[in-house]
Design goal:
The chain is mainly α. It has 12 helices and 2 strands. The protein has a single domain (2-284), classed as ABC transporter involved in vitamin B12 uptake, BtuC, CATH 1.10.3470. Helices cover 73% and strands 3% of the residues.
Length: 290
């Protein structure tokens, strides 16, 4: 029984971080109507920023104040100069913006590989392997810290979307872009800001995961897949659903790793993803109604 509870705790902590990754992709999906397939690579950039700052002595959690603004700017530039121009171009491929994000992700990976090589990097802290125990259940200190920071960012994001004029404009654009335009919302500006926010959120997740994971150029691709699964599980465009999707994926991976084997960790998440597509195509959005 102790193993089961330990597995649940590990899945919940990891799921909280996955939710943060998923919310970023869901925001972009809701406003722009596309899946950002460079999402994980943006997270990878944040991890390398955290690594560089750690080399000069900055605590990884303080790196949030550098990584998040940096990725916000990168997201804004990508949207403004790479994606927005494609909206105005007639093409036989309506998915051209998605294909552009694929190319951007590949370019990010290869640029980082050229600069840092392909060897594994890691963030050194005095608490990277620290644990504490509650009722016989062990808690990894970096994961616990990351979980609570992720929860804080999630709460702030919900407050922002529901209580500020800009947040309401983002929600209006996501619900009906044409109607929002008629009501005076500058939807072009909103799409740029939303891409920046999505990049900043996944940057936060990357910085929080840096003390836990080894860092290498190809780490972005698996997390792009995870973000996509979370978005589908939660229901396209649903931020509340993204939280449920992230926690579900984290729990599924943790249970799969414990009871089936580490090699099945990712497979379990993919199986759940396929089952949701078959039997609950609306994802958790259908259940949460948000």
């Amino acid at each position: 029984m102790a193993i089961f509870f330990q597995t649940i705790v590990a899945g919940l902590l990891k799921g909280g971080l996955y939710a943060l990754i998923g919310i970023g992709m869901t925001l972009i999906m809701g406003v722009m109507g596309i899946i950002n397939l460079a999402h994980g690579q943006m997270m990878m950039l944040a991890m390398y920023i955290t690594f560089i700052l750690n080399q000069v002595g900055l605590d990884p959690y303080l790196s949030l104040f550098v990584a998040m603004p940096s990725l916000f700017i990168i997201g804004v530039l990508i949207q403004k100069y790479f994606l927005n121009p494609l909206i105005k171009v007639e093409t036989i491929l309506p998915q051209n913006m998605v294909l552009m994000t694929v190319g951007i992700g590949m370019a990010m990976t290869e640029i980082v590989r050229f600069v840092f090589k392909s060897d594994y990097k890691y963030v050194k802290t005095s608490y990277s392997s620290s644990t504490f125990f509650l009722g016989g259940i062990s808690f990894n200190v970096p994961l616990v810290i990351a979980f609570f920071i992720a929860v804080l960012f999630t709460i702030i994001m919900f407050w922002f979307l529901n209580r500020t004029d800009l947040g309401r404009s983002i929600r209006a654009t996501a619900q009906d872009k044409d109607a929002a335009t008629l009501m005076g919302v500058n939807t072009g500006r909103i799409t740029v800001i939303t891409m920046g926010l999505g990049a900043a959120l996944v940057a936060a997740a990357g910085t929080l995961l840096a003390p836990v994971y080894y860092i290498f150029p190809d780490i972005g691709s698996p997390f792009t897949t995870k973000a996509f699964i979370i978005t589908i599980l939660g229901g396209l465009g649903s931020t509340v659903g993204a939280i449920f999707g992230g926690v579900t994926l984290g729990m599924a991976e943790s249970l799969g790793a414990t009871y089936l084997g580490m090699q099945y960790e990712d497979i379990v998440g993919l199986v759940i993803f396929i089952m949701v597509l078959l039997f609950l195509p609306g994802g958790f959005k259908r259940l949460t109604k948000v």
